[in-house]
């Protein structure tokens, strides 16, 4: 509801933080939010004494001297400083969560692979115990590369918290709903949404609707950012306003608790006597966010030919080599197909990048059979891939009217590094052994005579 104020007499917005309850709009913005009135210092970062007896603390996501357009940090005003949220560490083992470099000598990563959806077991699984690493790439110790995981979560974390010093985490739900209760606020996500959790941010994961299954890209390198649009201009693809960052939320709760930390590919836990989610107010540009993939505005060919799949990039993370990503997150959603005299599905291809795909729901146009929701495929660097015979024949002989490709949503984690399969992906996950045969019945059409065959 709008309100009338004096003296100007104009109607003003009812809220100062956007139109989505619980969230602030924008990507990479400098936000400010407080859960208690007057908790956020004004005009300075580190007053001698903070209101409510809070402690001021900076969380830096980049080096102090990073260029200003890349510099990311957030000032937190919290009940206890973070030094109270860890104590002595004990090394633990999460055997299914792997980090690069992880090259199993008994696993062949060279090949085209596809998996059916992973199924839930009878054993309750949390965010930590239910993580299953499928591939790793690069090196967590030098902060390059990535890992891809599937999560199978049936149970909320109780008095248990986690953060990764190794990586930024991109979460892509496929079934079920999750809540990420973080130091900087609460994010709820469902299928067709994603969440980005920054490196070093403490959180716990709760199951709102289970069982929950989805995909995770663990980014060891530079942070995700929006790709440059170039001549496309200022609009379409992923628009910054559609990213939502949570408002401040905290809990002042004493209870024996465990904080698990991922550091240099190893897991450690520490015991504390309270919840670490105690940030009452904060301001800055280093924060978690969510994004609704249904707001992604695809662009494409409107006369002929099929553009490169990079046209569907949602987020990218730089590698240090201009134009070559550490990771691209690419979305294939419903869209209109209108190109004339054109083979409309993705064409046959061999690529310097390694492409790992997941199906959120529906049918992917290049693989109408076998690539099912919850499933995953991997086409490693410089390995050929493309449509199967059914897709090729259908698209080659279709009556090319304007057609809406509906009820589909798949994605790709693409990296410049080769992706190595884990033993779990090779031996325990439901690998489709006959996937390579999907191209075996493609016919030779060439007979030396001219004319379209």
TrEMBL record:
Its EC number is 1.13.11.5. CDD domains: cupin_HGO_N (cd07000). One of its GO terms (cellular component) is cytoplasm. Residues 23-293 form the Homogentisate 1,2-dioxygenase N-terminal domain. Residues 1-19 have a biased composition (Polar residues). Keywords: Dioxygenase, Iron, Metal-binding, Oxidoreductase, Phenylalanine catabolism, Tyrosine catabolism. Homogentisate binds at residues 364, 385. This is Homogentisate 1,2-dioxygenase.
